[in-house]
Amino acid sequence: MKHGKIKERMFIAGAILIATAIGLTATIVFNRKQPADTAVSQKETIHLWYTDDAITDYLSSKTLDFYNQTDIRVETKLVSGLEYLEEINKASLSEDEETPDVYIITNDSLEKAYLSGLAVELDESAPIYKPSEYNDAARNAVTYDNKYVGCPFYFETSALLYNKTYLEQIAAETNNSETDVEDGQMAQESVEAEDLIPASIADILKFADMYSAPENVEYFFRWDVSDIFYNYFFIGNYISVGGDAGDDKNDIDIYNTESISTLKVYQELNQFFSIDTKETNYDTIMQEFLEGKTIYTIATSDCIKRLDDAAKNGEFAYEYGIAQLPDINIELSTRGMSVTNALVLNGYSTHKASAASLIQFLANESQHDLYETTGKIASMTRQEYDNPHVEGFVQSYADSVPIPKMLETSNFWVELEICFAKVWSGSDANTQIRQLSEQIKTQLNGVSVTEEVLEDPQVELLPAVEYEDVPMEEETQTQQTTQQE
Predict the structure, then answer these.
(1) How many Å apart are CA 295 and CA 220, to the nearest integer?
(2) How many CB atoms lie within 10 A of CB 380?
(3) Can you list the positions of beta strands (E) in 211-290?
(4) Could you give the 3-state DSSP secondary structure of residue 267?
(5) Which phi and psi angles does 103 have, rounded to 5°?
(6) Positions in the chain short of pLDDT 50
(7) Backbone angles phi, psi at 23, to 5 degrees
(8) Cis peptide leading into 471, omega within 30 of 0?
(9) What does the angle CA 396 – CA 119 – CA 365 come to, to the nearest 5 degrees?
(10) Helical H runs in 51-124?
(11) What span, in angstroms and rounded, lies between the C-alpha atoms of 230 and 240?
(12) Is the dihedral of CA 354, 356, 359, 365 positive or negative?
C-alpha cells in the first residue's frame, strides 16, 4: 500500500476520533459515504477485523456488495497483528468497543481462539462443508477437535521457481551441439526445456554437472536457508506435529530414521550450494533471481506479482515458471508447509446469523477475484486462473502440511529453524533432531522425555556420483560419454 493511502486512512481515522469526541451520533460506515440518518442507524451492523492491509480495498468493495444484497452493514477494521487475539478478546468483553463478529486469522491460532471462546464451530451453511470446494490441506487447517472452527479464505505456501528462458536456452544449445562417438556417427538426444524442470534436488545437481550455465548465471540453485518456511519441505514428509489437523497431542513424530536422513542430506548440500545464512534472506534471493543470476529457487506466491510487476517496468527480462517442490532424491520425498488465513465467527458475537452469512459470502466471492485484486490466492477450489503461474502454488498447497495449531508447540517452528541452522553449519543431524523431539514432547507431556538414540542412517544424495561446485562452465568428457550412453 502506498504511503499516501496510509496517511489518508490515518487522517480519516483521526477525523472519526474527533467526530466521536464532540458527540456526533452519526455512524461512519465501511464505505465512508453512508448517510447518518435515523433509518440507517437502525440497520443491523456487524464488524469485521483483519490484519493485512493488502486486502483493505478488497474487503471494502465486497462488504459494500454484501450490504447491497442483504441490507446488513459491515464495518471493517485494520488491526495490528501484534497481540491480535488479545485485542479481539478485549473488544469482545468490553462495553466500550464494538465486538468483532467476524475476523481473519492464520490457522495456527485457531486452538487458542477456540479455547478462549473467540471461535465457534461453523454451521452447515459455511462453504467448508461442501466436499468439492476445498482440498484436504484447507480442511485440515481449520479443523480443531474434529470441528470446523474457521472457513479457509486464502493461503501461502512455497513452490519451485525457475527461469524458463534459461531452460529453453540450455535445451537449444544442447540440441545444437554435436557429440562425437567412437564409430563416427552423430548421437544426440533431443532435450526440451520441460525436461530440465527438476523432479528432485538430485536432478538439479545432475543438470549442473551436465550442462553449461548461461553467461549471466551465478547459481544453479539458491534458496533462503535461514527461514524454516523455505527449508521445511526437506523434512515435511517425515515428521508429524499434531497429525493431519495439527491438533492431536498424541501424534508427535519428529525423531525417526527418515527425518535424520533428510537433515543429513540437507547438510551435505552445503558443500554444493555455499549459502551464508547471515548475508542472504528471501529478499536478496528474489533479487538475484530477478537479475537473472539464479536458475532455480524456492519461493512463496508473492513472487508472481513481484516478477510480473518487474517485467512490466522493464526490470525483469526473462520468462519464468512455477513447479512442484522437488523431492530430495529417488528415495526421499518432500512436502512443503502452508499457512491458511481463515474467516472466523466470534463466539461473543450477538449477530451470529448475519456474521455467518458474511463468512459464506466472502468465501464464495474469493474464488472469483481475490487474486486479481489482492495477489492473495483463495483457498477455495477454482478451475483456472488468468495467470498460469498461480496454478503451481495451488497444486503445492494441496500437497502441503498446514502449520499446527497446538498452543504447546507454538515455539516448534522457531526451534526447528534453529535445528536446521545448526545442521547447515555442521552440527550432527541425528543429535539435533533428537534434542528437538525431546524438547517438544517434554513441553506436551509436562515431564522430561528422553528419546532412544537411533542408529545414524547411511544416506547419500547421489550415490557413486562425484560433483563439482555449481555453476559449471563446461561439460567434461566423462559427462558427455554418460549422456551418449
Answers:
(1) 5
(2) 24
(3) 219-221, 240-241, 252-253
(4) helix
(5) -145, 160
(6) 1-40, 179-184, 186, 464-485
(7) 90, 15
(8) yes
(9) 50
(10) 56-70, 84-93, 110-115
(11) 18
(12) negative
Residue 10, helix vs strand vs coil:
helix
Distance between CA atoms of residues 118 and 167, nearest Å: 50
Residues 100-139, buried b or exposed e (16+ Cβ, 10 A)? bbbbbbbbbbbbbbbebebbbebeeebbbeeeebbbebbb
Q: Exposure of 179 by Cβ count < 10 A (0-12 exposed, 13-18 middle, 19+ buried)? A: middle
Give the pLDDT confidence score for residue 295 in this predicted structure.
97
Give the length of the chain: 485
Residue 188 has a pLDDT of: 55
- The amino acid occupying position 64 is L
**How many CB atoms within 10 Å of residue 437?**
20
Question: Rounded to whole angstroms, how far apart are CA atoms 142 and 426?
Answer: 37
Question: The C-alpha cell of 361 is what?
Answer: 459470502
Nearest-angstrom CA–CA distance, 362 and 261: 43
3-state secondary structure of 70: helix
Can you give the three-state secondary structure of 362-409, one letter per residue? HHHHHHHHHHHHHCCEECCCCCCCCCCCHHHHHHHHHCCEECCCCHHH
Q: Do the Cβ atoms of 318 and 163 come closer than 8 Å?
A: yes
pTM of the model: 0.84
DSSP 3-state assignment of 8?
Answer: helix
**Paired sense of beta strands 102-106 and 337-345, if any:** antiparallel
CB crowding 215-244: b at 16 or more within 10 Å, else e:
eebebbbbbbbbbbbbbbbbbbbbbbbbbb
E strand map for 107-150:
143-144, 147-148
Q: State how far the Cα of 350 lies from the Cα of 275, in Å rounded to an integer.
A: 53
* Rounded-to-integer distance, Cα 321 and Cα 160, Å: 8
Nine cell digits for residue 46 = 456487524
The x, y and z cell numbers of residue 409, run together, are 508447540
One-letter identity of residue 17: L
State the pairing for strand pair 320-323/151-163: antiparallel
Number of helical (H) and strand (E) elements in the chain, helices listed first: 17, 14
Query: Nearest 10 degrees: CA dihedral of 302, 304, 305, 310?
Result: 120
pLDDT at 219: 94
pLDDT in tens, 409-452: 999 999 999 999 999 999 999 999 999 999 999 999 999 999 99
Closest by Cα among 332, 288, 329, 281 to 310: 288
Cell numbers standing for residue 112: 487458542
Nearest Cα to 12, choosing from 73, 78, 84, 61? 78
Read off the pLDDT of residues 451-461 as tens digits, 9 standing for 90 and up.
999 999 998 87
